[in-house]
């Protein structure tokens, strides 16, 4: 814990929505610029492309697009920054990256086949993912 | 001193061949002059057509964009129906394609194909 706290310093709060908004874009840019080293660290070049990872980051940010409170945006940015730092410090393993950012929330098992239709929801959720 | 004479000797070599062999070698010399400029980083500069082609292919490859709508003067948000985050994503894709790092203030201004082509074709480090 002290490890992450040392590497992530808390910036002062955003004054207004506009500043928070530009901070989100700055964060997105720095995340995009670290994609090559992330692919390098976790050997992801055979499972994902840079543009796919970029879209995944954008999708994660877009999940919170309805938030309008600058303080909440700052908090979410801090969490994102922390996550990015953890990833770059190799605090995760390859399967964490693949599970969270490559396969995403669809999961490895997708019911495309007709015989999957009868499967119980419990099992589908079980197969899907344990990242929420 | 020894280094200087060594370098001078090295440089003089093509000049001698030029004067000795005369007009026959002249063509070859001019080819050397344009394509083999050592220590020069500006030699592999992109042509405008190449920049346009590559910018358009990057924009067309963007998942939310309909490739048939992309033209050199299309506006990302007004014409292609993208939002500001998509705009930043496209600029990042362009950075990766041309191996640039566009400063944040200028990246904010790039909101159409036209501006992106203009910026990249005037950038000395684009490749």
TrEMBL record, chain A:
It is a peripheral membrane protein. Keywords: Electron transport, Membrane, Mitochondrion, Mitochondrion inner membrane, Respiratory chain, Transport. It is found in: Mitochondrion inner membrane. InterPro entries: Complex1_LYR_NDUFA6_LYRM6, NADH_Ub_cplx-1_asu_su-6. This is NADH dehydrogenase [ubiquinone] 1 alpha subcomplex subunit 6. The keyword Mitochondrion applies. It comes from Xanthoceras sorbifolium. Signal peptide: none annotated. Belongs to the complex I LYR family. The keyword S-adenosyl-L-methionine does not apply. Its main location: mitochondrion.
UniProtKB/TrEMBL annotation, chain B:
Residues 49-124 form the Carrier domain. The keyword Lipid metabolism applies. Carrier of the growing fatty acid chain in fatty acid biosynthesis. Gene3D superfamilies: ACP-like. Belongs to the acyl carrier protein (ACP) family. Keywords: Electron transport, Fatty acid biosynthesis, Fatty acid metabolism, Lipid biosynthesis, Lipid metabolism, Mitochondrion, Phosphopantetheine, Phosphoprotein, Transit peptide, Transport. Its main location: mitochondrion. It is found in: Mitochondrion. This is Acyl carrier protein. The keyword Transport applies. It comes from the Eukaryota. InterPro entries: ACP, ACP-like_sf, PP-bd_ACP.
């Amino acid at each position: 814990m002290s490890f992450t706290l040392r590497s992530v310093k808390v910036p002062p709060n955003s004054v207004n929505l506009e500043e928070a908004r530009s901070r989100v874009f700055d964060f997105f840019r720095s995340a995009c610029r670290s994609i090559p080293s992330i692919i390098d660290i976790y050997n992801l070049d055979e499972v994902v492309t840079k543009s796919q990872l970029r879209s995944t980051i954008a999708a994660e940010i877009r999940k919170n697009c309805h938030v309008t409170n600058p303080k909440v945006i700052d908090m979410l940015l801090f969490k994102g920054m922390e996550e990015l730092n953890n990833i770059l410090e190799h605090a995760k393993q390859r399967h964490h990256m693949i599970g969270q950012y490559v396969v995403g929330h669809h999961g490895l098992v997708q019911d495309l086949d007709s015989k999957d239709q009868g499967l119980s929801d419990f099992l589908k959720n079980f197969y899907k993912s344990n990242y929420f | 001193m020894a280094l200087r004479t060594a370098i001078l000797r090295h440089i003089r070599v093509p000049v001698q061949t030029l004067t000795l062999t005369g007009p026959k070698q002249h063509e070859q010399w001019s080819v050397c002059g344009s394509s083999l400029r050592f220590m020069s980083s500006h030699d592999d500069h992109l042509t405008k057509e190449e920049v346009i082609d590559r910018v358009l292919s990057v924009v067309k490859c963007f998942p939310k964009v309909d490739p048939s709508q992309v033209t050199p003067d299309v506006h990302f948000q007004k014409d292609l129906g993208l939002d500001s985050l998509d705009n930043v994503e496209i600029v990042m894709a362009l950075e990766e394609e041309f191996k640039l790092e566009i400063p944040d203030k200028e990246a904010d201004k790039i909101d159409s194909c036209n501006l992106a082509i203009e910026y990249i074709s005037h950038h000395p480090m684009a490749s």
